[in-house]
Amino acid sequence: MPTTSSRTRAGKAATVAPAPSETAAVFHALGDPNRLAIVRQLLADAEKACGSFDVDITASTLSHHFKVLREARVIEQRADGYRKLNTIHPFLRAHFPGLLADLAGVDG
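Structure tokens predicted for Helix-turn-helix domain-containing protein:
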């Protein structure tokens, strides 16, 4: 279930906390070492093509990991000609900024 936002008195968007199932999906997705490596590489490079990740797995396994990460809204993909480019999903940036900072090795 997607989260919603409302407006505060100052007119700024107030983000509603993710549902427990959304939080569980994010942590499940990040619970695999290969998926965690994918996310860390995206945090370092901002955007990467599917074939440019430094992980020692087959293309079909990599595709599976991308699917898990997309469904949990950890990453998003966009077409760029014949390839797909991956970035960190805005949902993850909005709801888990501290986690992303930890994964990137940045002090909070």
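Strands lie at 5-7, 13-15, 48-49, 75-80, 83-88.
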